[in-house]
Amino acid sequence: MAVACGGGFTTIVTEEGGAWACGNGEDGQLGLGDNAHQLLLSHVGDREVLAGETLVMISPGSMHTASVSNNGVLWSWGDGRYGQLGHGDREPRQQPERLGRDLFGASPDMMVACGGVHMLVLTAVGLCGAVAPEPTADWVMVTRQMSWC
Q1: Structural domains of the chain, count
Q2: What pTM was estimated for this model as a whole?
């Protein structure tokens, strides 16, 4: 069970592995399938999106969110304009979308932390992976940067 706050929104993972969110949803960061604000906690994703998944942690950024399931699968959603979701594009996701294991060395993902416009992932073999824009005027997406922690 965990609670974490992002840029004007709150996320929760329950003991049963479900995710809930409320607050500012203008960039899809709540994972509810739309860009609406929610005053009350609402269940993240629909039945098809997270079917059979048990989430163990969640990390909100400024306008995006990521979560890890008990089988080491990484999920992300929200604003993707800087490539921070890790899906290889700059498109937003209004519901959780699974990332491929190959993104961070094919090892199960263990932890995730989101910042303003980036995401860091720690894998089961100790690799740290970053999905972040380069600090240039173009904000070019950088993925698959690995280093040992």
Answers
A1: 1
A2: 0.88
Within 10 angstroms of residue 4's Cβ, the number of other Cβ atoms is 17
Q: Strands 38-43 and 55-60: what pairing?
A: unpaired
CATH for 110: 2.130.10.30
Domain that holds residue 110: 2-148
65 vs 84: CA distance, rounded Å: 10
- Both structure tokens of 41: 């906690």
Per residue in 31-89, pLDDT tens? 999 999 999 999 998 778 888 899 999 999 999 999 999 999 999 999 999 889 988 88
Q: Is the dihedral of CA 63, 11, 67, 126 positive or negative?
A: positive
The single residue listed with the structure tokens 């997270």 is 50
Nearest to 85 by CA among 135, 141, 42: 141
SS3 sequence of the chain: CEEEECCCEEEEECCCCCEEEEECCCCCCCCCCCCCCEEEEEECCCCCCCCCCCEEEEEECCCEEEEEECCCCEEEEECCCCCCCCCCCCCCEEEEEECCHHHHCCCCEEEEEECCCCEEEEECCCEEEEEEECCCCCCCEEEEEEEEC
